Amino acid sequence: MDRLLINEHDVETPHGRIHCTMKGVPKGDRPVILTFHDIGLNHKTCWDTLFNHEDMSEIMQHFAVCHVDAPGQHEGANTFSTGYEYPSMDQLSETLPLVLKHFGLKSVIGMGIGAGAYILTRFALDYPNMVEGLVLININPCAEGWMDWAAHKISGWTHAMPDMIISHLFGKEEIHHNHDLIGTYRHHILNDMNQFNLHLFVKSYESRRDLEIERPVPGSNVRTLKCPSLLVVGDSSPAVEAVVECNTKLDPTKATLLKVKRTVPLCPPPGKLTEAFKYFIQGMGYMPSASMTRLVRSRTASGSSATSFDGNRSRSHTTEGSRSRSHTAENQRGRSHTDGSMDGTGNSNVDPAVPKSTEVSC
Predict the structure, then answer these.
(1) pLDDT of residue 29
(2) Any idea what the CATH number is for the domain that residue 244 is in?
(3) Where are stretches of biased composition, namely Basic and acidic residues (predicted)?
(4) Mapped to the 3 state alphabet, what secondary structure does the chain carry?
(5) Helix 146-158 vs helix 161-169: angle between axes, to the nearest 10 degrees?
(6) pLDDT at res. 194
(7) How high is the mean pLDDT in each 10-residue block of the chain (362 residues)?
(8) Around Cβ 125, how many Cβ atoms within 10 Å?
(9) pTM reported for the whole predicted model
(10) Which candidate, 74, 41, 260, places its Cα nearest to that of 171?
């Protein structure tokens, strides 16, 4: 991965200049992985651990990656002038079509955490043809409630902004017991981030609107994600309830919920997320020969059962209506989200007529 071509671009938009880092060369027959970070982080502190992991190198051979930094959050960013109106979450999502246009991209697989996950979800809702899939870590689809608002206002009187961000990124258990990790991120927030710009980004996220998504039922025409989605959360994360709630609002035939035993602000342990990401990509028809290790999957239909994925690993997908999606990737293969297994054999134990949600534990 050290040999990947890396280019940094500043993309001009009506809502400000967006700093982007492109790693690798986009391939015309497949999407680019587009990332968006959380508050208190930038693309390096949020994603370097994951994308530098040895297991990620196989994915990076197949996909270019575009890291997007929110305005004023990248390293060395200039301080915004007093009175500058920072973009709202909705406006930040509106900058992404211009990012794709700047790089000549047709579609992306989005990967976001926290505020970045919210922005990418809004983008996918408004521009479904541009998003082939989403990996959403610690997603909160709801507007900040008045009780949360009041709590943040009160805590703001007694705690510095870094403490508020730490409580957003980490669960109480890690805050109380993993002092070295907390100290590292507190130091980053205080010394590496532009404090004025960071305050504006935090305020924008706290002012977010409800995404107003609903789980579709037959015959309905509700607002929800149309692409496959992998929701990720750690069992001690402060976002657990929000992520579970978001999962209940998505099409169960296209959403997978991944719970891990621990989480850090950037993501779960890189090896586990990389494994899940490979499954996710394979379900979209890419990287059919990717190497795998092991995940434990719990299926939920009328009931639930745990399945260990070793050797012949089964997985389920269903069609989006009668729509199939074709790409000009290897062998000009046609692709559709249908019930099947990862090695191409059918899964006779799964009734394709029954909506399924999938939960992965690792």
Answers:
(1) 83
(2) 3.40.50.1820
(3) 317-340
(4) CCCCCEEEEEEEECCEEEEEEEECCCCCCCCEEEEECCCCCCHHHHHHHHHCCHHHHHHHCCCCEEEEECCCCCCCCCCCCCCCCCCCHHHHHHHHHHHHHHHCCCCEEEEEECHHHHHHHHHHHHCHHHEEEEEEECCCCCCCCHHHHHHHHHHHHHCCHHHHHHHHHCCHHHHHHCHHHHHHHHHHHHHCCCHHHHHHHHHHHHCCCCCCCCCCCCCCCCCCCCCCEEEEEECCCCCHHHHHHHHHCCCCCCEEEEEECCCCCCCCCHHHHHHHHHHHHHHCCCCCCCCCCCEEEEEECCCEEEEEECCCCEECCCCECCECEECCCHHHCEECCCCEECCCCCCCCCCCCCCCEEEEEC
(5) 130
(6) 95
(7) 80 95 91 97 93 89 96 95 94 98 96 97 98 96 65 52 89 88 91 94 95 89 94 90 95 93 58 88 86 49 31 35 39 37 34 47 58
(8) 17
(9) 0.80
(10) 260
Confidence at residue 359, expressed as pLDDT on a 0 to 100 scale: 60
What's the pLDDT at 287?
Answer: 85
Residue in 101, 100, 135 with CA at minimum distance from that of residue 121: 135
Say if strands 314-315 and 304-309 run parallel, antiparallel, or are unpaired: unpaired
The pLDDT score that the predictor gives to residue 343 is: 34
pLDDT of the residue at 219? 80
Per-residue pLDDT, 172? 86
Q: Per the domain annotation, does 285 fall within a domain?
A: yes
pLDDT of residue 337: 39
Could you tell me the residue range of the domain that residue 19 belongs to? Answer: 6-146+207-295+356-361
Amino acid (one-letter) located at 118: Y
Residues 341, 60, 24, 225, CA torsion sign: positive
Tell me if 26 is assigned to some domain: yes
Answer yes or no: is 42 within a domain: yes
User: Has residue 313 been placed in a domain?
Assistant: no
Tell me the C-alpha distance between 1 and 164, whole Å.
Answer: 35
Burial zone of 151 (CB within 10 Å; 0-12 exposed, 13-18 middle, 19+ buried): middle
- In the prediction, which pLDDT does 239 show? 92
Residue 228 and residue 285: Cα distance in Å, rounded?
12
Per-residue confidence (pLDDT) for residue 72, from 0 to 100 = 96
Q: Residue 310 and residue 297: Cα distance in Å, rounded? A: 11
